[in-house]
Automatic annotation (TrEMBL):
Keywords: ATP-binding, Cell membrane, Membrane, Nucleotide-binding, Phosphate transport, Translocase, Transport
Origin superkingdom: Bacteria
Gene3D superfamilies tied to this protein: P-loop containing nucleotide triphosphate hydrolases
One cellular component (GO) term of this entry: membrane
Pfam families assigned to the protein according to its UniProt record, in alphabetical order: ABC_tran
GO biological process: phosphate ion transmembrane transport
Coiled-coil ranges per UniProt: none
InterPro entries named in the record: AAA+_ATPase, ABC_transporter-like_ATP-bd, ABC_transporter-like_CS, P-loop_NTPase, PstB-like
ABC transporter domain boundaries: 22-261
Stated name of the protein: Phosphate ABC transporter ATP-binding protein PstB
Molecular-function GO term, any one: ATP binding
Length: 266
């Protein structure tokens, strides 16, 4: 798609005086010679949902995947990702530990070919949790957190592959929150789902933000405006604007954002 010539210096980043769960500074991402993402300076507020929006290929997933080091071995990432006072983009950081604090839910539900229960207990056991009553409790807590408990409580030992797409995606959310992370990254978690399952996921996210900080990539602008507190607009590998969601969707500062949300883009 050919885009109008937007000015990459036409940017606006609102700042808010709330507690930050994650901050990126001068994040740059390179796939070989392709400088795919530039100057990522964004802050994510604790217990809020931030949506990343923008056209296909604007760099949303590229940026999101850096935040828990999913781009390791795929891309070269420079700059800082500050989490609890540590730059987690540094070589000496244990990426498995990073991912236990910063979980990821992907676009397509990807449950393991194991029982519903084992999908949740698998990583917990790998992290050394063996007590059966504690594992049972974590299974119930996580499934309740993902709004799935009532639908599956009588078939926990059945295969997760028997779940519908919407249920499987909520199982993947349950699997992520079983590790008790701080931050959940979600890459278009509802795009493969029907409207009712999408609504269930959105309701689940609204519940989850009481305990988690959520960063979500979505193509669905109604979804971004329904569920997120803050929104950042991405264009051709640049974050151009960040503000309260309501402001972005009613009166953005940046011309490219305005064109995108009003459908006059490209
Ligand atoms: N693994 C990869 N190897 C090489 N280039 C990649 C890779 N992943 C993404 N890119 C490139 O980086 C740029 C940004 O892609 P990215 O997937 O981050 O965009 P996006 O905004 O998430 O798009 P979409 O909404 O379609 O998922 C694109 O030019 C894409 O071709």
């Amino acid at each position: 798609m050919a885009f109008k010539d937007y000015d990459f210096n036409d940017t606006y980043f609102a700042s808010f005086d709330d507690e930050k769960a994650l901050v990126t500074k001068d994040l740059q991402v390179y796939y070989g010679d392709n400088h795919a993402f530039h100057d990522g300076n964004l802050s994510f507020s604790r217990n809020k949902i931030t949506a990343l929006i923008g056209a296909s290929g604007s760099g949303k997933s590229t940026y999101l995947r850096c935040l828990n080091r999913m781009n390791d071995n795929v891309a070269r990432v420079t700059g800082e990702i500050m989490y609890r006072g540590t730059n987690i983009n540094s070589d000496d950081v244990n990426v498995y530990e990073v991912r236990s604090h910063i979980g990821m839910v992907f676009q397509r539900p990807n449950p393991f070919a194991k029982s519903i229960r084992e999908n949740i207990t698998f990583a917990l056991k790998q992290h050394g949790l063996t007590d059966k009553s504690e594992l049972d409790q974590r299974v119930e807590e996580s499934l309740r957190g993902a709004s799935l408990w009532d639908e599956v409580k009588d078939r926990l030992d059945k295969s997760a592959l028997s779940l519908s797409g919407g249920q499987a995606q909520r199982l993947c959310i349950a699997r992520s929150i079983a590790m008790k992370p701080d931050i959940l990254l979600m890459d278009e978690p509802a795009s493969a789902l029907d409207p009712i399952s999408t609504k269930n996921i959105e309701n689940t996210l609204n519940q989850l933000k009481k305990e988690y900080t959520i960063i979500i990539v979505t193509h669905n602008m109604q979804q971004a405006s329904r569920i997120s507190d803050y929104t950042s607009f991405f264009h051709l590998g640049h974050a151009l604007e960040f503000d309260r969601t309501e402001r972005i969707f009613t009166n953005p500062h940046v011309k490219a954002t305005e064109d995108y949300i009003s459908g006059n883009f490209g």
